[in-house]
């Protein structure tokens, strides 16, 4: 073999020729790439200014034709410096740079990068429609339950203000779109006997219910007492310093002396609780014992006077126990009653000494003594009670004859040296009938100039029949008026 043909009989090409072709093909693509890099570098250099010369560090390739020509030309013409080759960034989109497709050998540049994939909206459930479940769902919505939030809607949170600030109204329900019926469910729906459920009616928009507090405790309603009544109660509860005697007087009959005596004792006793007594000192058959207290016995002042000496020598519990045998008690126990004698002949025995002894005995056992006086201002009994009294109460009704008699009695007391008792007296005007009485205001103004105070008590139907007087059956307005009147009587002595 001479080297001109292969071992198989085919002529062989000279070695230098095929090697030169291989080197040319290898370096041809690199030259084109370097040429495009050089053009991009020159465009960028023109935009940024003249670049600073950099020495080329590439080795000399004898197979490169451009380098061969430069080597043959010598230093006849100075070539521009070859820029330094940089790594290719396929994502660099600046002007003058070859695209990624061009660098990879493609004829057309690649398109823009694909956009990020958006999540597809949630399609309604294509499951078969269950009429019973849908009916239960609509009924729950009508009762106030919240439906499930739609896709993409964040549920409301009371603790995160960045979310829905206002919760959706409970009554505002938007019907969901009917899901498409699949082929597999067509036979089920068509064979269903039940009609499609009707949507719940739209309710008016309401706000979310506010949290409620636990049920409060039971509160009983009570009428608030006026301020004047509170002052009157406080006055009646004060200490009086010593036992006090209040005389109810008017020579005219039928002016509510007995009624005033009983109701004054009942009012004061209802506040103080004990130590109050009403005494019928009318020498001409008084009725106080019949209208007040329980008739547990028939003993009167006559029986007490018969054993007065024995009782005066008792003290403490013995005195209280023995005296109680001659007294009657109110139904509620608020006051005691010393009834008068029905026999008119007994009045002769009530002389000045006997009346004073009885008065001193009652002061040992009671704090307030209300005395119902008679009609004879010349009797010793009447005058003795007046001189022993701490408070005079002039009782009258809004009539001219009753007012004239009361005014005359005040003149008699002034003439007998009882000016202090008259000036400190209280005038009590009782209304015998309902409605506005014509003389009421005039009489109140007149007695206000003669006595310390004037009290007016209204008409009450429970007192009209003239039977037993029960303080608890009076109307609230009547009890309040008597409370103020009794406070006016006690006020000068209250400590």
Topology:
Layout: H1 15-48, H2 65-73, H3 100-103, H4 131-143, H5 183-191, H6 227-236, E1 244-249, H7 257-272, E2 276-280, H8 288-291, H9 301-306, H10 308-312, H11 316-323, E3 328-329, E4 336-338, H12 352-365, E5 368-372, H13 380-388, E6 391-396, H14 400-415, H15 419-423, E7 426-430, H16 440-448, E8 453-457, H17 476-490
Provide a descriptive summary of the structure in words.
The protein is of the alpha/beta class and about 500 residues long. The protein has helices at about 15-50, 65-75, 100-105, 130-145, 185-190, 225-235, 255-270, 290, 300-305, 310, 315-325, 350-365, 380-390, 400-415, 420-425, 440-450, 475-490, and strands at about 245-250, 275-280, 330, 335-340, 370, 390-395, 425-430, 455. The longest helix is centred in the N-terminal third of the chain and has 34 residues, at about 15-50. It is rod-shaped, with a radius of gyration of 62 Å. Residues about 165-195 have low confidence and may be disordered.
How much beta, percentage-wise?
5-15%
**Total helix count?**
17
Order of helices and strands: HHHHHHEHEHHHHEEHEHEHHEHEH
Lateral strand order in the biggest sheet: 3-4-2-5-1-6-7-8
- Kindly provide the radius of gyration, computed on alpha-carbon positions and rounded to a whole number of angstroms: 62 Å
Key terms:
495 residues; alpha/beta; 38% helix; rod-shaped
Quick recap of the structure?
The protein is α/β, with parallel strands linked by helices and 495 residues long.
């Amino acid at each position: 073999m001479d080297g001109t043909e292969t071992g198989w009989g085919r002529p062989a090409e000279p070695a230098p020729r095929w090697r030169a072709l291989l080197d040319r093909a290898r370096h041809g693509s690199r030259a084109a790439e370097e040429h495009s890099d050089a053009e991009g570098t020159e465009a960028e250099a023109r935009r940024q200014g003249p670049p600073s010369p950099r020495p080329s560090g590439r080795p000399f390739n004898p197979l490169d034709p451009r380098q061969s020509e430069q080597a043959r030309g010598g230093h006849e013409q100075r070539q521009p410096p070859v820029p330094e080759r940089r790594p290719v960034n396929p994502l660099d989109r600046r002007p003058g740079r070859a695209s990624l497709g061009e660098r990879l050998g493609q004829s057309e540049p690649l398109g823009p990068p694909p956009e990020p994939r958006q999540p597809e909206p949630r399609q309604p459930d294509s499951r078969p429609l269950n009429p019973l479940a849908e009916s239960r769902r609509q009924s729950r919505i009508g009762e106030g339950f919240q439906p499930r939030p739609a896709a993409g809607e964040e549920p409301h949170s009371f603790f995160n203000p960045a979310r829905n600030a206002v919760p959706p109204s409970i009554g505002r329900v938007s019907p969901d779109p009917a899901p498409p019926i699949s082929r597999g469910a067509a036979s089920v729906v068509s064979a269903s006997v039940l009609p499609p459920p009707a949507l719940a009616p739209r309710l008016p928009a309401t706000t979310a219910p506010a949290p409620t507090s636990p049920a409060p405790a039971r509160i009983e309603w009570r009428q608030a007492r006026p301020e004047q009544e509170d002052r009157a109660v406080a006055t009646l509860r004060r200490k009086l310093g010593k036992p006090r005697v209040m005389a109810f007087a008017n020579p005219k009959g039928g002016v509510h002396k007995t009624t005033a005596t009983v109701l004054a004792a009942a009012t004061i006793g209802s506040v103080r609780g004990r130590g109050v007594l009403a005494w019928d000192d009318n020498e001409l058959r008084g009725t106080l014992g019949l209208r007040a207290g329980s008739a547990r016995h028939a003993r009167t002042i006559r029986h007490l006077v018969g054993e007065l000496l024995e009782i005066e020598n008792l003290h403490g519990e013995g005195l209280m126990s023995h005296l109680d045998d001659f007294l009657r008690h109110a139904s509620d126990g608020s006051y005691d009653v010393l009834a008068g004698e029905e026999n008119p002949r007994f009045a002769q025995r009530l002389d000045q000494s006997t009346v004073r002894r009885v008065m001193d005995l009652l002061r040992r056992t009671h704090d307030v003594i209300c005395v119902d006086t008679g009609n004879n201002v010349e009797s010793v009994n009447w005058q003795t009670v007046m001189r022993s009294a701490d408070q005079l109460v002039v009782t009258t009704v809004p009539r001219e004859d009753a007012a004239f008699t009361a005014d005359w009695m005040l003149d008699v007391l002034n003439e007998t040296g009882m000016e202090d008792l008259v000036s400190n007296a209280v005038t009590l005007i009782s209304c015998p009938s309902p409605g506005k009485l014509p003389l009421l205001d005039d009489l109140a103004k007149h007695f206000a100039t003669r006595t310390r105070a004037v009290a007016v008590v209204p008409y009450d139907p429970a007192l009209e029949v003239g039977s037993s007087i029960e303080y608890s059956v009076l109307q609230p307005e009547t009890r309040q008026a008597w409370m103020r009147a009794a406070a006016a009587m006690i006020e000068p002595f209250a400590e």
